[in-house]
Write a structure and sequence with these properties.
Layout: H1 2-14, E1 21-23, E2 29-32, E3 37-39, E4 42-44, E5 53-58, E6 67-70, E7 73-75, E8 87-89, E9 100-102, E10 111-118, E11 123-133, E12 140-145, E13 153-162, E14 167-172, E15 177-178, E16 182-187, E17 194-202, E18 210-215, E19 221-226, H2 238-272
Parallel strand pairs: 2-11
Antiparallel strand pairs: 1-4, 3-9, 5-6, 5-10, 6-7, 8-9, 10-11, 12-13, 13-17, 14-15, 14-18, 16-17, 18-19
Length: 273
Amino acid sequence: MVMILAALTVHITAQSPAVFILSVPHGPILTWLNSSVSLPCELSPLFNAEPLEVRWYRSGDFNKPALLYKDHKIQDTSVDPRYRGRVSLTGGLERGNVSLRLERVTLEDRGEYVCYVSSEQWYDKAIVLLTVNVLGDIPVLSVAEARGGGSQVNVTCSSEGWSPQPTLTWRNKAGTEIRNGQEVHDISDPQGLVSVSSWLLYSPSDSDWLSCTVSLSEEEKREGRIIPRAPMEGHWSLGGFITLLVINILVISTLIGLFFWNKKTGILTRLYY
């Protein structure tokens, strides 16, 4: 009896049902720049999709698909040239798997993709969101004198070249997060990469150093550190610089005078003898 039921089940799922739906992930698909990625899409119930039309396209570009499978083969005409040679079906059409494989991912590939499958009696479509991660530069930190003076300094942290928008976190030497920083995100790159910067007022005596971490996740992050010393600390003051300059001028003048004096003395000595 079990074998008969199994055989009937296989027979039913092998036929195209009158109505089907597409199953895709609820959240975005994450990948890295220049990598390969699969955008999952399956028929439900599972059945042989080889006789069907499978179309993957960007939202709003139905007539310019990234991939078109029709009449039992991949069609090359009317396909978006940006995807030519970079897309394929992952395999398993006979099992209802119509997932898309995308190679050499670029930043332009980010966004929504529509998985569209149709038979003579029915069609369904579902959206898959692709996010392309790009790890930006190591944060650059700097210290400036705080406006109004006082014991605090203005510490700035900036980093460029991120996708998507990252999170910036300040911490002190003890690892405690500092939450009084002002943060600014700026999409300035022509490719849409994000630059992020932040600044905070800090008392140099509070910690030996500060860290600024820019991250997409706990594993995908960059960190920079700085000792928040006052800008004038460890440098010559204006009065000290002037004093040093005067001393150097006096020393040089003395050496020049000695040179000419020695030269003149030598001449007089030769005349005497």
